[in-house]
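Input (Tyrosine-type recombinase/integrase):
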Amino acid sequence: MTNRDIADHTNQVNETSAARLILAKLGITPADLLDGPAEQRAVVTFAEYVPRVAQAVSAGSRQAYSTYWKRVVDIWGARQLTDVSPSEISQLAERAKTTATQRRNTRGGRSAAEHTISALRCIYNHAVADGILTETDNPARRVTKPRRLPSTRRALPNNRLAEINQTAATTGNDPTLDALLIRLHVETACRRGGALALTRADLDENQCLIQLREKGGTVRWQPVSPTLMAHLLGHADGRGGLDSGHQLLRYGSGRPITRRRYDYLWQRLGIHLPWVATQMVTTHWLRHTTLTWVERNFGYAVAHVFAGHSDSGDHRNATATYVRAHIQEVAAAVTALTGEPHPLAPATKFVSLVDPYDRSDEGPADRPLCPEPTAGPGPVCLLV
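Output:
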């Protein structure tokens, strides 16, 4: 090999090293170059692509993001997905934050900004999966969401819970329905979506279990008291919700209820109980109340399963993998909560925290959903 050959080889090595250095600074790997020239990728605008994404996501995601996707299409409809920069996404999120509807429970539009970024991340994640752009070219992943503030919801003391029970069961145009809703959410800590999705096929009368289908596609069997089971069956029998696959909870006319029933219920409770309106109490506060009581009395593992939370992706407490509670322990918590024996719970004597009175001589269908708070010493506080 001549000196000239050696010099040419050295120059080639230096040029290759320089090219690799430039690619590294640009965030490009040699593998990215094998994807083909950028001009060969599909050219897609937001107006064309957002409807495709909307059809590919779950109904819950579609409902959560539809408002923000519409805004994106209105502003960037004719632009290509590859034309938007991270700074423009940040500007759009800030615009959503400043123009968010101001309500009493508003938190400065932080939620609107967060959802704007999440909606765009959903679009770009699908675009990456479809090969429209690479993960390196994804601008949404380089935009930071605003930090979430701590929730103002908290567990209710038992005297306040008793006021809600009593008012729901004695006022309004359908107190029987509202009493059933309050009891269902207090006893199971389910979300609104879980209650609205109930059908007759979700009721296991023999084992006193109801199947809850909630956000994220989670499905679980939740123990309930014989009293609640009897009232759910009676409600379905009297209002036409017994057919398999049809919604269980209905108005007196037989029409299925919607989320609007909950809005009406809490608006009415706020009129009769001013503190409900002042603190903006909602159904989710009942979930906080029950789960706080379960955690204090039966521990974190039982509360975790009672809530229907998933173990996947939870790295905060690795011990939870080994101490997962079983449905029998959840049933024991329900027995303590209601004072009624459960088919899956150990035969242990508990003092009821929903109804403190001895009703052993009454059948489940005869026991009240919302006991009178003034008849006797009153329920034990859930937060003891």
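Residues 374-384 have pLDDT under 50 and may be disordered.
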